[in-house]
Amino acid sequence: MTKRYLAAVLGALAVLNIAALVVGTAPLELYRQLFATSFGSWFGLSQVAFKATPLIFLGTAAAVAFSAGTFNIGGEGQAIIGGLAAAMMGWWMPGLGIIPLIVIAAIAAASFSLIAGGLRERWKAPEVMTTILLNFLAAALANYVVAKVAPSETSHTPELPATLRFTSLAEAGIVPGAQLTVWFIAAVLIALAVDHWLFKSRLGYAVRALGSNEVAARLFGTASRSTVILVFALSGALAGMAGVHFVIGNKGYYEDGMTGGIGFVGIAVALLASQRPRYVIIAALTIGVLQHSSLALSTLVPKEITDVVIAVLLIGLLWARHGRQVTA
Amino acid sequence: MIPYLLSTLRIALPYALAASAGLLCQRAGIENLALEGLMLASAFLATVVVLSTHSLFATVALVLIGTVALSVLFAHSSEKWTGEPILLGISFNLLVAGVSRFALKAMYDSASNSPAITLDLRTNIVGFALVAGTYAWLQRSVYSRRVLAAGSAPIALQGQGLNPLHYRYMAFALAGVLLAWAGLDLVFGQQRFSDGMIAGRGYIAVAAVVFGRKKLLPTLAICVVFAAAEALQIRMQNQASEGFSLPTQLVQSLPYLLCMLALVVRRRHISGNT
Question: Whole-model pTM?
Answer without folding.
Answer: 0.89
